[in-house]
# Entry
Amino acid sequence: MTSGKVLRRLRPVIPVALISGIIILAAVMLLVSKNFFVSRLNNYFKEVVMMPMLASTSIFLQDSVYVLNMGSMAGAVAFMIPIFAAIGRQLQEAEVVSRDVILASPLKARHVLLGDFIVNLIIVPAVLIIASFMMIPAAITFYLTPQAIALIFASIAIANLSGIWIGVMISSYLYIRETTERMKTLFKTLLGVAGVAMGIGFFFLSSSTMPLNLWFLPSTWVGNVVHFAVTQSNIAIAKINYLYIAFPVYPDGWTSLALLVMFTFLVVLAGVAYASKVSFIETGGEEVTVMVKGENWFYRAIRKITPTPLNIMLVSQLKEFTRRMDNIARVATVLVFPAIIFLMRGTMQTNVFQGDAGWISFFSSFTGVYIMYIMMAGVLLPIMIVPYTFVRNKDVLWTIKKTPAGVKLMVHAMFLEALILSTPLAVISAVMFYLALGGVTGNPATVLATMLFLVAVSSAITVGVYAWRPVFQEREIGHLINFLITMILTGITTGVMLILSVVPWVLNLIPSMTVLNGIPWLPPSASIVLAFMLVHLEPVSVPVRIAGIAVSLIVGGVAAYLALKKGVEKLEAYE
Amino acid sequence: MAIKTRGLTKFYGSTLGVKDLNLEVSSGETFGFLGPNGSGKTTTVRLLNCIIKPTSGTAKVGGYDIVSEPEKVKRITGLLPETPGVYEKLSAREFLEFIGGLYGVPEDTLKRRIDELLEFFEIEDRGDELLEGFSKGMRQKVLLASALIHDPEIVFLDEPTSGLDPFSSKMVKDLVKTLSSETNKTFFICTHILPLAEEVCGRIGIIDRGELKEVGTPEGLMEKYGAGNLEEVFLQVTGRRVTRDMLELV
# Structure
C-alpha cells in the first residue's frame, strides 16, 4: 500500500566504496610521506623553529618501534577479524536457513566452503583500510615509496587470506558439530575476551617504546615485513628517554614474508584436505526444555523495594537478560579489562618505563590511565549492557506499547536494570584497579562513589539513546551508530563531571606540561619531576573542590533526567 | 458503540496505511475485518489500540478518544498481535503475570485468572516452561491468554488462527463464540481466512489498499454480489482473481 513510491536501482555500493577507500588511502599515504609537502614542512620546523641540535639528531635516528608494533597489530587484525566474524556468524545462527537451501542443491561441500571463502573476500579491502589508518603516522614520519605501500598491503592481505580460510573452516566445523548452548557461550566469551585484549593491546602498543618479541606469530611476521617496507632496513630503533637503541628485527623482512607465504600455503592446503572430507549431513536438532522454578531472593527483594508496576517490568526484564547465557558471557568479558591491566603492570614497569625518571613516568602514566579507565568504565559498562536489555524485536515493543504506560515503565526499568547490572561490575573493576595501582588511585571510597555516579549517568544516557533510536537485531549497524552517539554524549558529560569533581588538579597538567615541554635545556628527568611537582603542588581550595563536586552532580543529574525523558517521548512516538 | 472512527487516516511518511476510515462497531458485536496482505488491517488495529497515532481523523474506542485518552483505551482493550512478540526467556506463567501486572490486575485475581486461562487453553502443564521452547501455535495460545488476562471489554484479534493446527483453530473459534454469546465483549477480528469470518462474525468489513470497500453481514454481502460464499465476495470486492495464465506460470 504505497503512494509516491520512489524506485531506485540497487547498486554495489559497498565493494566500490571499499576499493575506492584503499586507493584513496594509498594515495594519502604517498602524499603524506616525507618526500612531498610534509618533508618541506618538517624541514622548515627543524631548521627555523627548533634548535639545530635536536633537528640533526632527529634526521639520522628515527624511532621505528611504532612501525613494528602497528605492523604487528595490523597483522593481528587481518588474521583475527575473519576468524571472529566466521565464529560470530555461526553462533548467531543467522544463516542456517540459507545454508540449508544451499545444501539442498547438488553442490558439494567443498564448493560451499569455496563459496564462503569467496564471499568473505570482501573483508580484505576493509582490513586494508583499517591497516592504512594505522600506518598513516608511519607514512608521515618515513619515506614511503609505491613499492613499500604495495609490500605493506600485500603482507596484510596474505595474513587476511589465511585468516579468512581458517574462519571458513571453523565456521563449517561449528555448523557440523551442532554446538551446544554451553559451547556457544564459551566461544562467545572467548571472542569477547580476545576482542577486549586486542583493543587493549592496540592502546598499549600504539604508545609503547619497545616491541613485543613474539617471533613465532604470523602477526609479528607482518610487523617485520611492514617495518622493512617502511624503513628499508632490518634494524629497528627504539627511543627511550632521549636514548636511541638499535636492535635487529627478527626474523628479518624477507624471511618474515617467506614464512607468511608458507604459513598461508599450509593453511590453504589443510583447508582443501578438510574440504574434500567434510560433509554436512551430520547436522541435527537439539531440543531442550527449560522449566522455571519459582523466584529467588534477588527477584523477591526487587519486587518489594521498587513500586508496582515498575517492579513487574524490572523483574521481567532482568529475567530476560540474565537467562541468556551470552549476556552473562558479555558481563564476564567486562571484567577482563581491569584484569589485563593488572597483569600488564609488571611488563610495563620493566620494559617500557626505564631510565632515571622511570618511576615518575610510570606513576604519571598510570594516573592518566586510571583517570581514563574510570571514564571508560563509566561509559563502557552501560554501553556493553544496555543494548542487550532492549527488546529483541518490534513485536515485543508493540506488546509493551499496547499496555498503559508500558513504554515509560520499560525505559525506566531498563535504566534500573543497567544500574543493577553495572554496579557490581564497577565495584569489582575499581577494587581490582586499586589493587593493581595502590596509592596512585587516591581515596578508594571517593573514587568508587564517583565511578558509581558516572555509571548511573551513562546508564541513563545510553538508555535514552536506545529509546531515541531503537535497534532490534543484534547484528544491525544501528548498534554502531548508537555506540558512537552514546560515546560522544557520555564522554563529554562524564569527562566534565570527572574534571570538576574528583581530580580538579588534573587541569594543572595542561599548563605545566605545555610550559615544561618548551624548556628543552632542562635535563630530561628534571623536566618530568618538575612537571609532576607543579601539578600536585598547585593548591586547590576547599570551596572550589566542593563547588566542583556540586556542579558535577548537577551536570550528571540533568543529563540523566533529560536523556530518560526524551527517550520516553521518542519511543512512545516510535512507529 | 464500542468502536467509532471518523476519517481515520494514517501515512507512514509517503506510504499510505489507512485512508479516511469511517467505521462503527456496536458493543457485544463480533466484527470481521477482511483484507489482503498489506491492505491496512494491522495499521487499523494499531491505531485503535493507541500503539501508533493517526495522521488525521479521529476514533473512539469504548467511548474514549484514541489520541487524547490513550491510557483509558488501552485498559479496556485486549490485543492479540499478528506476529507474536513475547519475552522468550520468561515462562508462560511469568509472561502472563508480566502482562497482567502492567494492566494493573490485582495480584490475587491475576493468579486465579492465569490458572483459568492456562487450563482453558490446555497448556497448564507447560505453564512453567520457557516460551522459547514453544511452537508458534503454543505461543499464539499464550498471547491469546495475555489478550484476555485483564478481562477487556473489547478484544482485537489480528490473524488469530495464523499458525494454529486445525484443533487449535477450532478452539479459537469456539472461544470467540462462547465469549461473545455469554459476555458482552466486542470482538474485532482481522483475518484473511474467510471461513473463520463467515463462521463467527455477525458483520464484516472489507478493506483494500487502505480503503474500506464494503461493510455488511456475510449473508447481505453474498446477496449483494450474487456470490455463493464469502470468498467470491472478497475476490469481487478486491478485484483480485486467479487466472489460468497465473497458474501456468507456476
Remarks:
- The longest strand of chain A covers residues 235-240.
- Chain A has 23 helices and two strands.
- The radius of gyration of chain A is 27 Å.
